[in-house]
Design goal:
Shape: elongated
Strand content: 5-15%
Order of helices and strands: HHEHEHHEHEHEH
Radius of gyration: 25 Å
Helix content: 40-55%
Structural class: alpha/beta
Strand order of the largest sheet: 3-2-1-4-5
Largest sheet: 5 strands, parallel
Number of strands: 5
Distance between the termini: 74 Å
């Protein structure tokens, strides 16, 4: 009944959490008193994310290759899917219910930076590919999908419906990335029932880190005060004995 799953070499949870904390440290609204610095997150030469070397065998081990069958309703969606979380998982499950074969387009790192900011994505494209491929509802992944969506993509994959979640990450993108699908009348907004976003996740981790530092700072002060009182008592006792 026990099964041990091997970790993905080159991907470090510690490194990802460190990136999240440091991106909050760079925020102008953050208080510098409790912010971690780069020195707080020493990168391991064995597990830091930039050591991930993508191979065809690794991609195959994360996927279940399949082709759409004749008559299948093909669903397409696209996004960053950065640090895959329950919000993403519930959305992908809802997207799959819209048809028979689900294709997920993953945006390039440079595209994400252009509309989400320089601190995103937290995971590289290669890391995000493995995360999304591992989801059982996903049948195919387009690596470095065009942003915005193009008619060529819709025609190539014979897409019947394009879906997007009602809850989306905050961006500075002024253009509708799914305009071509709207124009063709095949766009659909769906509700997964989960409003968790990567931005919420980053904020939660940062807040927990700040609470931890504040709590330890109070404990440290109590310990210092206690030791000073002990030293003062010992000093008074020594003076009394000398007198």
């Amino acid at each position: 009944r026990y099964k041990e799953c091997k970790r993905t070499q080159g991907v470090s949870t510690t490194d990802l959490v460190g990136k999240m904390l440091l991106m909050n440290a760079a925020s102008p609204s953050a208080s510098s008193e409790h912010l971690p610095s780069q020195e707080d997150f020493q990168e391991s030469p064995y597990t830091k994310s930039c050591n991930l070397l993508q191979t065809t065998n690794k991609i195959t081990s994360f996927s279940s290759p399949s082709e759409p069958r004749p008559g299948d309703k093909i669903v397409y969606t696209a996004g960053a899917f950065d640090v895959l979380h329950p919000g993403h998982v519930d959305f992908l499950a809802a997207a799959k219910k819209e048809g028979d074969y689900l294709i997920v387009g993953l945006y390039d790192d440079a595209d994400i930076k252009s509309f989400m900011g320089v601190h995103y994505p937290i995971q590289t494209l290669q890391e995000r590919v493995l995360s999304v491929l591992a989801n059982r509802n996903v049948d195919e992944v387009v690596i470095g999908a065009p942003h915005p969506l193009t008619g060529e993509v819709l025609d190539h994959f014979r897409v019947n419906v394009v879906v997007r979640g009602k809850v989306a990450e905050a961006t500075n993108n002024q253009h509708d990335p799914f305009k071509v699908a709207r124009d063709r009348g095949i766009f659909k907004l769906i509700d997964s029932g989960n409003d968790l976003t990567t931005e919420h996740l980053v904020k939660r981790i940062y807040d927990n880190r700040r609470q931890y530092l504040e709590r330890n700072k109070k404990k440290q002060k109590k310990e210092i005060d206690m030791m000073r009182n002990i030293e003062l008592m010992q000093q008074k006792e020594a003076e009394a004995e000398n007198n």
